[in-house]
Amino acid sequence: MYGRELFLTPRPYYFKMENNNTSNIANETTPEAEEKVWYAIRVTYNRELKVKDDLDSRGIENFVPMQYKHMRKGGKIVKKLVPTIHNLIFVLIDKKSMVEYKATTTLPIRYIMDREKHVPMVIPRRQMDNFIAVAGSYDEQLIYLENDPGTLKKGDKVRVLGGIFEGAEGTLLRIKGDRRVVVSIPGVIAVATTNIHASLLEKIND
Description:
The chain has 206 residues and is of the alpha+beta class. It contains four helices and 16 strands.
């Protein structure tokens, strides 16, 4: 049995701007430069939280996949919120500001590249919203699938109608005997919910 658990109140590992100030790109005229998109960024030396702190201080929206884990500390088992996947952070930013950030930060970061297009990977907004809807719960029972989630077998496309994952859309699969909804960012990562009752699932079209 575990010893007494320490429940921590986490700071938000999904940093979101309340007011979008675009004055710093007012002189940029191309839609590509003005539009904010989600970039998948690789961070070396397990410094994803340092990068997050740096982005937060600059008011740049970002998301680090985090999860509660039971860990031994001083002879006791404590519950701690930690990065689930080291060296990974997602950043919502326009193209010009991303280039400026990479040029001015001293932290070790690099783009995750789209292997087919040979350009930095940009994650569709809806896809990222679904991923955050699941990963942002920090639940211990979430299952993360790295590297090539595209190899998962096909299942029905569903929407979650209630509970902590309400609104998330993904693929219904059985993993470890449980009915789970898997939300995938192809080529980067996928996350599977905890077991969801069939009454909370609605089949949707692709």
